[in-house]
């Protein structure tokens, strides 16, 4: 049954454009890598792959470990001229995900103020989950977790992060801290983050809205020393998240002493 999914005659397979041939090989490797199949069925699928390689005048490789599969997978993607998007990575060997979290999510509220890019939103969701920070709140203009591109970029983490739509910033925990490039903003490295607060991330083009800035109790910035005085919002958040996590760890260590 499984081998039938990749059942080609030599004539049919070689009639495909070379890019399509490599794409089919990549699909077979992804199936081998991700699906739990019995040893006998796995050996059959590996045999199918070796046959396809033989037809393509490729090298007959011994794919006996995950690293070999990954290397071949990316070789086929390259020759198929497929763009390498992050969700095309083979997940298990890349990330070595855990079955349980090391720490329950915190009580921080992260508010996305008119962020437009689904890629940025997905990346932010992934960072929130990785650091177990807390919950996400979406302004009406921000693509939410139902968006397919958000889900792809979040790489499965959206189901582990609590997300809310259309809840006003005024309803979120105080103090309200805005991550913003401003002459009067405090460096994130000079600021002591409280245990409970709301962190606002602004629009990719103009940052936080005027209405949001008026509600903010603190403005924070990431000190930069290059010519460009800004960062992608998802990258900036990742840096801030790392600092928040570092301070939390120090606080826990101090309390234990």
UniProtKB/TrEMBL annotation:
Organism from which the protein derives: Parachlamydia acanthamoebae
UniProt lineage: Bacteria, Pseudomonadati, Chlamydiota, Chlamydiia, Parachlamydiales
Superkingdom of origin: Bacteria
Keywords: Methyltransferase, Transferase
Ranges for domain tRNA/rRNA methyltransferase SpoU type: 108-240
Keyword Lyase: no
The keyword Methyltransferase appears for this protein: yes
Signal peptide: none
BP GO terms, sorted: methylation; RNA processing
Gene3D superfamilies associated with the record: 3.40.1280.10
A GO cellular component entry from the record: cytosol
Name recorded for this polypeptide: tRNA/rRNA methyltransferase SpoU type domain-containing protein
MF terms (GO), sorted A to Z: RNA binding; RNA methyltransferase activity
